[in-house]
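Practice record 12: protein with FE2/S2 (inorganic) cluster.
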Amino acid sequence: MPLSPESQKRIDREVAKYPPAGKQSAVIAALAIAQDQYGWVSTPVIEEVASYLDLPPIAVQEVATFYNMFDVKPVGRFKISVCTNLPCALSGGECAGDYLKGKLGVEFGQTSSDGRVTLIEGECMGACGDAPVMLVNNKRMCSFMSQAKIDALLDELK
Ligand code: FES
């Protein structure tokens, strides 16, 4: 699973932020870039990142399986993580998750039948006062997600 020239260029920019002997420190950024390219990080992708950074594959695998922003199995085109930790759960997070489950016809950890959205039960995103909160594709934070805002979000993620 080769890294595209664009991915390599992006990883090189991350590697340049560290001393020459420390290029392995870019492993999280490199995995995120590889995931942007492939949608998820399969074992061959992990091996490619390891090779690019001169790391043993197991070291990259450990990082990929530790952080929940990395997907080690296929996901939909969009991934919505809903925070259901206690502060959010008490402020509508669980209801928002249930609403999304109903709209998408899935449980947490599943992908809608059209392959469009994977729904994830997320951990605290550091925005407890904005509940219900959701993160789209690990990058876009959505706050105060009422049912109307969830409907609008799903309409947008086509
Ligand atoms: S508990 Fe949900 S963002 Fe902190």
